[in-house]
């Protein structure tokens, strides 16, 4: 038996273990789930060590004597102290520095997610698509304006915004389902072509 066939059989076994959850929760599914989490964590630790710790901390600090990097390394160690009851309060310092970064990113987020979209909506209504975008933008914004009752003509216009949101959420959900179906098709193709085809 070749190594490729053996690895395909192992992959098929764990694929069927995961699919067994469709019947009910069982030991085979739990074993595959826990193996996936454990292997992913181990791989992530090794990847972090080789791709982050060695090139960005060990080599600059030990080989190039850039001792200023000891400050962020200590802050990183403070994160790990979260699991110690007596020293867990030290983990608040790196979290506070992270929050400073979040605060600095607020203007950029405002520009990206609000101002740019407002600019895109403020265009001459030269086509049906642009008119639909404009109407949808106004209707959805008014839907979240709760100071006025959604009754009468105003309520009907707000209902248009509700339809816009439902269509948008439905399209997002449909894309998510299609992504999951493509993963399922890939697994079935693996079982049929790579495993059963090799066993013939």
Pick out its properties:
single chain; 200 residues; mainly alpha
Brief overview:
The protein is 80% helix and 0% strand. By secondary structure, it is mainly alpha-helical.
Give a verbal description of the structure.
The chain is mainly alpha-helical and 200 residues long. The protein has helices spanning 3-19, 27-63, 70-80, 92-121, 128-143, 152-199. The longest helix has 48 residues, at 152-199.
Low-pLDDT ranges: none
Radius of gyration from CA coordinates: 27 Å
* Helix and strand pattern: HHHHHH
How many extended strands? 0
Strand content: under 5%
Helix content: over 70%
Oligomeric description of these chains: single chain
| Category from helices, strands and their pairing | mainly alpha
Q: What would the principal axes of the Cα set say about the shape? A: extended
Number of helices: 6
Major sheet: none
Mean pLDDT figure: 89
- Quote the distance from N terminus to C terminus: 13 Å
What's the layout of helices and strands?
Layout (H helix, E strand, L loop, with lengths): L2 H17 L7 H37 L6 H11 L11 H30 L6 H16 L8 H48 L1
Helix pairs in contact: 1-2, 1-6, 3-4, 5-6
